[in-house]
Amino acid sequence: MPASLQGAVLGHPIGHSQSPALHNAAYQLLGIDFSYRAIDVEIPALAELLTQVRAEGNWYGLSVTMPLKNAAVDLVDELTPVARTLGSVNTIIAATDDGGTTFLRGDNTDVAGILNALRHAGAQDGPRAAILGGGGTAVSALAALVELDASEIVVFVRNPAKAADTMEVAEALGAPASLSTFEGAATALGGFDVVISTLPPRAADPLAADFAASGQESAGILLDVAYDPWPSALAQAWEARGGIVVAGIEMLLYQGVEQVKLFAEAGGYGTLATDKQGDVINVMCDAIGVHRRNPHEQNMAG
């Protein structure tokens, strides 16, 4: 039986994180001897913490949240292709080389988290889509929409000049993406099949008020990655206009499922979490208070 190992979610602030509840529920179900906790870390302290993880050698991995996702790219020892393309890491796997030395591999499960949350809500292939915000999570949203074969992606940002890196990623992904400013967003949102808000909590409140005042109706899907507080003003306005709302906790759930599978394998448990994926999803649903998934709802992209 593999030795007891530790893991954590890193970010700042981190007190609101539901990740410990998600992960610990999964590991308890699987009988895996893993601990998992939240650690408040700001960007200047990240390199030192990762050095400590390498030195201690009793870690299976780390979840990485804001504001660390971009900084982690340059601090791990290797990157998966998706993490390299996106320039964003939300998962760090602690692996061991042939000499017994711990090295850190950066990965990104946010793409699968967004994609599976949208599919669970009924998103169809080929949507006309919008992304609100051009930061670290926006690149994962771009990749997820490419997987959905989006016909058009409009990225709404406050300052297009600051979104150059995001558009470089869009080009690398082959995404049919263009930039627009928030000034026209409120009157345009109702025409999209899928809208993904990657904005921090409450940052979309002014846009929500403008959208509500516009009188538009929507039959589209809104995924708001912010989940605390919930419902967000944007989610309330979208639902009031007839749209389908997906809470950010759904993205957290599905990206967490992928992390559990990666961490279990890294910790010496092989495909145990993958083999029991259906049960893992449901105990994680219980842990964060969302409804369980039926087996036919669990066809996921990994």
Automatic annotation (TrEMBL):
GO molecular function: NADP binding; shikimate 3-dehydrogenase (NADP+) activity
Organism annotation: Arthrobacter psychrolactophilus
Domain Pyrroline-5-carboxylate reductase catalytic N-terminal per the UniProt entry, residue ranges: 130-225
TM ranges: none
Domain (Shikimate dehydrogenase substrate binding N-terminal): residue spans on this chain: 9-92
Pfam families with a match to the protein in the record: F420_oxidored (PF03807), Shikimate_dh_N (PF08501)
Secreted recorded as keyword: no
The keyword Transmembrane helix appears for this protein: no
Keywords: Amino-acid biosynthesis, Aromatic amino acid biosynthesis
Name the record gives this protein: Shikimate dehydrogenase
GO BP terms, alphabetized: aromatic amino acid family biosynthetic process; chorismate biosynthetic process; shikimate metabolic process
InterPro entries (alphabetical): Aminoacid_DH-like_N_sf, NAD(P)-bd_dom_sf, P5C_Rdtase_cat_N, Shikimate_DH-bd_N, Shikimate_DH_fam
Gene3D superfamilies membership: Leucine Dehydrogenase, chain A, domain 1, NAD(P)-binding Rossmann-like Domain
GO CC terms of this entry: cytosol
